[in-house]
Every structure is written in structure tokens, then in C-alpha cells.
Amino acid sequence: MPPLDFVWGWGETKLWVEGLSYRYWTCAYVSLLFLTGNDLGPRGALQVAFGAFADLMGAIMIANLFGELAVLVAELNQRSTEFQKKVDTANTAMQNMRLPNDIQNTVLAYLRATQQSHA
């Protein structure tokens, strides 16, 4: 029974009377509520145990998601930092060699193009 059907005390649900699309989206919604620990409303020891298990699994899934995102952001920052070091080294070397500005701009454009093609 969807949580709101229980909370409002209707005692019965429209879940089995409605069409397949309504049932699908209601089940998806209730599953999401379980995984995020919202609006559980258990009635009995078995439902409390299942709710606790679903809440724990949802917390693990969310922690995994945030961990993966943190790793991706760290990798992007590392690549950006490495590229900036290459550009700084190239700028310093070109200035020490006193290359003309048009050649310096061409070299920097090449570095940016190769960085974009490897990203």
C-alpha cells in the first residue's frame, strides 16, 4: 500500500484498480522513498526490518554515488593542473628563448588543441 493511502487512513488503495502506468510509477516512487528513508510508515516487525534494510542500502548507494563523483572531480582537477603546468613551462621556455609573439601564440594554440583532443 502506498504510504499516503496508509497515512490518510483510507484502509484501501487505488493501486490495483488503476492502470499499469499508474502502478509502475507508484511503485517506483515508493521504492525511491524507501531508499531515501522518507515516508516509510511500517506496520509490524517485518516491515520495520525491511524498512531499516532498505534505508541502509539507500544510504550505501548514495554514499557510493557521492564518492564516485568526488573521484571524478579530483581527476578533472588533476588533469587541469597538469595542463596548466605544461602551459606555464612552455610560456617560460618561449620567453627565455625570446620567440616572437606569433610563434608563441601558435605553440599555445597547439597545446590547447592537443589538450582538447585528449580530454
Oligomer category: single chain
SS element count, helices: 4
Q: How much is the radius of gyration in Å? A: 28 Å
| Helical content (DSSP H or I, runs of 4+) | over 70%
What does this structure look like?
The chain is mostly helical. The chain has a domain of 57 residues. Helix content is 77%, strand content 0%. It has four helices and no strands. α3 runs antiparallel to α4. It starts with a helix and ends with a helix. The relative contact order is 0.06. The mean pLDDT is 84.
Quick structural gist:
With 119 residues, the chain is an all-alpha fold. The chain contains 4 helices and no strands. Helix 3 runs antiparallel to helix 4 (101-118).
Topology, pairings included?
Blueprint: H1 3-7, H2 20-36, H3 45-96, H4 101-118
Helix pairs in contact: 3-4
What would the keywords be for this entry?
119 residues; mainly alpha; 77% helix; elongated
